[in-house]
Design brief:
about 625 residues; alpha+beta; five-stranded antiparallel beta sheet; 19 helices; 20 strands
């Protein structure tokens, strides 16, 4: 949680943030230019051009206004860029990799119970964060921006529920304790004899005996009937002094790419990243709601801070426009090693306040908050084994040329077809234009014409064809699509397209298996990243858990049951968090059905017996 920081500390933190934010600025601008281009292509904004003066992608005025220009009549883009990437995303999102927890010690009952509770926590986090959609967004970021980062954090809100925090206080009270005068043992509650208790119809004569018996008691230690002595003693009593209601917390997960997250370009792994800057734009009113002390410090009505970064993150729906009331919020995570750009005294001061690292919130140029927080506890970045560095080119970059060539071919073919409609010139002495203009054109119609003497009728007409589509255009277009499928891995069998060859079911199944094999590298990389993400999510959930949690599920008979995660179940230790699925790509239900039908078709007795039992 953020705490109050003095102006000197704000100055030091702002100095570190500015130092790393300005690092590799030219490289960062080129990356933003590339990622922005891919986002525009995804939104089917195909004719953007890069302005060397403005240093951004400009959208033609005709496309922004929706009006067709002369060239616009022929520019009818077909978004193969998005189609290929959606095929890859669909193939990799058939299922979300499930998570399973292993105990730290298989012989420790507490660890076994906590590992089982970890599985239930993973299922609950899946539900809270709409993980299927989160997984789809992660694939989208991977295809259009390359480097993918997941931000995990705890968020407290009353809409998630509340829990009671009971406050107790220990007080010392003085009381009289009865003791036996003979053995000095403490005596508890009085024990009445059965003779007195069971007496039938007591009269007035029994009152003195009853009073004596009331004062006497039996010592449970020496078993004598005695008159107890009183002894004062002090007793510490725990009392409930108050109940406070707090909102429950949930673990939230968000996925971002390079447009929103800046990390060192030179870093090879996440461990080498000395900083991470997560930036986004929002309306200044949202910022003032969270940081009211900035009311007189941030500029309103003019989003002018780092326009290039803002332009890169602006929604493509603006189509060249720019929001004017937004401010830039930078959440900066700095490792303790980043303090070394300061002098020794300043380093000691920051290490004392933020020993594990610091999270700094900067709104435009104003430091809003800071707290002690470790970068690796909040962020998980993909590690591409096919790249030497943590930054790598996205899959979509390979398809930009294919998209540009496709657009040019479509425009060329449309213009050629239109201009290829022939024009016919006729001799007015052969054809009466006025009579022909007034006649009705009907199939098989006969029209009067007078050929010149000694010449054929056809000599009075001349046909001109201004353009002819080359026979090489369509084969070339088909070849370009094959190249796009090759470089992206989105082969026809992956998305149900046509195949060459005999096109039998067996050949189609084999081709699909080969197409999925092409995506194995991407699948394995994302599996490892997903496992590391939940390696931080589940411990964070256990840390933030203050009360028993429950989730309603259906049992095997279709009945609704409560699945509890109790505080007593998280007292052990989780050893590791692994993936329940294997490294092979998931297959759909239809593919499983086809595989089972093929097994039935083999007519093997052993296989048939196994299938009938299962």
């Amino acid at each position: 949680m953020a705490h109050e920081i003095d102006d000197d500390t704000k100055r030091l933190l702002k100095q570190i943030v500015d130092h790393f934010d300005d690092e590799d600025r030219a490289v960062r601008d080129r990356q933003i230019r590339q990622w922005r281009r891919l986002k525009l292509l995804w939104e089917n904004i195909q004719h953007a051009y890069y302005s060397e003066v403005a240093h951004d992608w400009r959208i033609p005025e005709s496309e922004r206004s929706g009006e067709d220009s002369d060239q616009g009549f022929y520019d009818k883009p077909v978004n193969v860029f998005r189609a290929y990437l959606e095929s890859i995303i669909a193939a990799l999102s058939v299922t979300v990799p499930p998570i399973t927890c292993y105990p730290d010690d298989a012989e420790n009952p507490l660890d076994l119970v906590t590992a089982k509770a970890g599985d239930k926590i993973a299922a609950l986090v899946f539900k809270h964060n709409d993980v299927p959609l989160l997984w789809l967004h992660a694939l989208f970021v991977f295809c259009t921006e390359g480097m993918t980062a997941c931000y995990t954090y705890a968020k407290a809100d009353e809409k998630y529920g509340t829990y009671e925090d009971k406050k107790y206080d220990e007080v010392t009270e003085t009381y009289e304790q009865p003791i036996c005068p003979f053995c000095q043992a403490e005596m508890g509650d009085k024990v009445q004899t059965n003779l007195i208790k069971d007496q039938f119809a007591p009269s007035d004569e029994d009152v003195p005996a009853w009073n004596i018996t009331e004062e006497m008691d039996i010592c449970q230690n020496c078993m004598r009937t005695v008159l107890p002595q009183k002894q004062r003693s002090n007793l510490i009593v725990t009392r409930l002094v108050g109940i406070t209601t707090h909102p429950k917390s949930r673990v939230c997960m968000e996925v971002f790419g390079g447009l929103f997250v800046k990390i060192p370009v030179w870093a090879r792994t996440q461990a080498e990243c000395s900083y991470l800057i997560y930036s986004y734009e929002t309306h200044f009113a949202n910022v003032l709601e969270q940081y009211p002390e900035l009311r007189d410090k941030i500029q309103r009505g003019g989003a002018t801070y780092d326009l290039y970064e803002q332009w890169g993150r602006t929604s493509p729906q603006y189509r060249g426009e720019h929001p004017i009331n937004n401010v830039t919020v930078r959440n900066c995570w700095l490792r303790p090693s980043s303090y070394n750009i300061l002098n020794e005294d300043e380093i000691k001061d920051l290490r004392k306040q933020f020993p594990n690292g610091v999270k700094v919130v900067v709104v435009n140029d104003q430091v809003a908050a800071a707290c002690n927080e470790a970068l690796d506890d909040c962020w998980t970045i993909t590690n591409n084994p096919l790249s030497d560095y943590i930054h790598f080119d996205p899959v979509g970059l390979l398809l930009t040329s294919v998209q540009d060539i496709t657009n040019d071919l479509i425009s060329l073919v449309l213009q050629t077809v239109e201009h290829g409609i022939p024009q016919t010139f006729a001799d007015p002495k052969v054809l009466n234009f006025n009579a022909y203009r007034q006649s009705e054109v009907i199939p098989g119609g006969i029209y009067p014409a007078t050929p010149k003497s000694g010449r054929a009728l056809s000599e009075g007409f001349y046909e001109v064809k201004t353009a002819t589509l080359s026979q090489e255009v369509l084969p070339f277009a088909q070849k370009i699509q094959e190249i796009g499928q090759l470089v992206s891995g989105a082969l026809p069998s992956l998305f149900g397209g046509q195949m060459s060859g005999s096109r039998t079911a067996s050949e189609y199944s084999m081709s699909r298996a080969q197409a999925l094999q092409r995506l194995q590298t991407t699948w394995k990389m994302l599996l490892l990243w997903w496992k590391n993400v939940f390696g931080k999510v589940i411990p964070l959930y256990i840390k933030e858990m203050k009360d028993d949690e429950k989730q309603v599920k259906k049992d095997e008979f279709g009945n609704f049951v409560n699945v509890f995660i109790r505080m007593a179940e998280i007292q052990g230790k989780i050893g590791s968090i692994e993936l329940e699925a294997n490294e092979n790509l998931p297959i759909t239900w239809n593919q499983q059905k086809d595989a089972i039908m093929e097994l039935f078709g083999m007519n093997n007795d052993a296989i048939m017996a196994t299938l009938m039992i299962s």
